[in-house]
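REQUEST ID: PR-0412
SUBMITTED BY: lab tech R.K.
PRIORITY: routine
TASK: structure prediction, single protein chain
INPUT:
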Amino acid sequence: MASILTDSLPTPDDLAITVRDRRFGRDTAPKRWWLNDDPVASCWFYALSLTFPRGEAFFIEAVKAHREGVPSRLEGEIRAFVRQEVNHSREHVAFNKTAELAGYDTTEIESRIGELIGEASEQQPIVRLCMTMALEHFTAMFAHDFLRNPEHFHEADVEQVQLWRWHAVEEIEHKAVAYDTWLHATRDWSRWKRWKVKALIMLFVTRDFLRHRIRDTLDLLEQDGISRSEGGRRLFWYLLGRPGVLRRIFPAWVSYFLPGFHPWKIDDRELIARYDSEFADANLPLEAVAAE
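STATUS: complete
OUTPUT:
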């Protein structure tokens, strides 16, 4: 087992997963269109955020179900991953409440998300882990682009921007935890079987993730009086034109299907360092987590 992990994992030896326990927007009045006074951009981020509390609970359980017998280093990374995801859920619960306070009815969207998570939870444990791995790759791709391209948060409310930057940094930092756990859990599989399963599940995850997030965004935009046809045109341009996050992440999405893929084949820790240089006093080192 040790040789398989050593040969397969390019996770940097000096990577430290850091739990940054921060809180955002508790003392600021909610603004309906918080991102550049743009309903499309604001509703897209609301639609993403609404998935996080239930989604990240699903991720945590999927990874924890396969932690028995993992190498000690990965065990510590899983503990830190759990702490980070718990904090993310807490902050996005608060962010989602700002959408409600701003006048959006999210009841139907949250109900659909709950049903989808319930269906996913009925899958076999290894499938749940593979779904988590695919969705963690999505969040890491988004995170990279959100931090690399300031255009995403042009003229946005400061507290909301800080929330998304904080979340993005930690998603990059733990982007390989689910993947490394998958490699450990499937260590007795052939490379072909491992690739086939992860590729098929990524295709299904991509279809469902984009379909539901687009639907949720359009539902929110209808509450702003924007028709589905008009909202669809504007959202299409927002996602594929400018700033075009789906266009920008497409090469990283394709890389998931290549032989020898691993999340840390792209080492983007400079984005983490840039953030940490601004908030050095907010960090809780991995060693402190491991000692708990």
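NOTES: Strands lie at 19-20, 283-284.
REVIEWED BY: pending
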